[in-house]
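Re: weekly structure request thread

Next one in the queue (199 aa):
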Amino acid sequence: MTATELALHDRALMDPTAVDDIEWGVRLLAATPTHEGRDRELLRQWACRADEFGSRLAPVPSTARVIERDDGLERMLLARYTSRPPTVELYTDTLALAEELVDARGWRAWYPPGSVRAAALAHEAVHAHLHHGPAKAALKQALDHTVLRVGRHRMAGHVAGAEEVAAHAYARTVCGLGRSPLLLTAALRAELTRPGREK
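Done, posted below.
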């Protein structure tokens, strides 16, 4: 990390709201395996394109069944989509902690009551949408990451983590949130890994 990046990192630990939604997307991509050593500007381009893609998606209906569980804190999960059969696991203990954090940090204007649950379901609906239809190829095209070019033909490559950024942007947009759920996710991770936190 450069001195500037270290300063930004320290500032984010003290006040995660000082980091904008796109930068949280960049950090998500940077922490994703396969992106070690990638140019930060390239990661920023991908984060911007994935965010724009997610925010422009038409409403995505979900037909997945929803199962509520209470072991999300130990798994560090808020929700998870599995495809066989299409299921969304919603972790009620992590949802409750997220709601507590929203109140404790004064973020209720960004995340109105009930919106954390709604955003988690919207986020997972996008994962299902990208898993089962042509939207995955559309996201690849939007990211404009070429892995192979032969003459005028090119093959768009997968960008690990881009689906997450797109799903967060969709949830922010469709749920009318003031900030991306990425901010809340970062705050949850910080809380769950805080030294001395009771398990």
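The radius of gyration is 17 Å. Strands lie at 65-69, 79-83, 86-91, 146-150, 153-156.
Next request, please.
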